[in-house]
Design brief:
4-stranded mixed sheet; rod-shaped; two-stranded antiparallel ribbon; Dihydrodipicolinate Reductase, domain 2; single chain
């Protein structure tokens, strides 16, 4: 490395007692040019370090933003899937509940019908017998009928006969296998539809 002075300078030390002076290495002497270059290198290194730090910080911020966006997107997807699942499950449960309630309702209706129809049949039978007895009593009491014939099953006749307030010899009974009354009073014919009504009541229970 070229310098502007001799390669070695004599170092004098008065305390050495006249010893031969030791040479001083020229590398220990820093010229203004070298100092400027060293300062420039330090500035460059500092700038490089600052740039690397800034790049690292920028990369970290970018990574944080990217991760936050991915987390938000994942949460959105999870929310959508959760809502879809909840909606599908709700619809499924609603359909199952509706079907279940319908089955229960049908079973309850069938059971109620099975319980009520015998009572309804008995009530209807009682009403028919009462009204029929009242009609016959009115006809016979007014003398409007000189000949009365009642055709029905034996059990129906046995239920109707005690209800009539007329002598039994004034009525002719014809016992058959029918489930309805057929009454002929002179030219008046009275026919009941008891069996048809009872059949209509029992219709919902067919196949149960």
């Amino acid at each position: 490395m070229a310098v502007s002075i001799a390669d070695y300078l004599m170092e004098f030390d008065l305390g050495n007692g006249g010893e031969k002076p030791r040479p001083v290495q020229a590398s220990l002497i820093v010229t203004p040019h070298e100092e400027a270059r060293n300062i420039q290198e330090e500035l460059i290194r500092a700038a490089e370090l600052r740039v690397r730090n800034e790049e690292r910080q920028t990369a970290e911020r970018t990574l944080e933003v990217t991760l936050a966006a991915e987390r938000a997107a994942a949460e959105d997807r999870l929310r959508v899937e959760r809502e879809r699942w909840a909606r599908e499950e709700a619809e499924k449960l609603s359909a199952e509940l509706t079907t279940g309630l319908k089955i229960i309702e049908e079973k309850v209706s069938d059971k109620v019908a099975k319980i009520l129809i015998p009572f309804l049949g008995a009530t209807l039978r009682e009403k028919v017998l009462s009204e029929l007895a009242s009609t016959l009593d009115a006809l016979l009491a007014r003398g409007n009928a000189t000949s009365v014939t009642i055709a029905a099953s034996a059990d129906l006749i046995s239920e109707l006969e005690p209800r009539l307030n007329v002598p039994s010899d004034s009525i002719k009974y014809l016992r058959n296998q029918e489930s309805d009354f057929r009454i002929v009073a002179d030219e008046t014919i009275i026919e009941t539809r008891l069996s048809a009504w009872l059949g209509r009541l029992s219709e919902p229970l067919k196949g149960v």
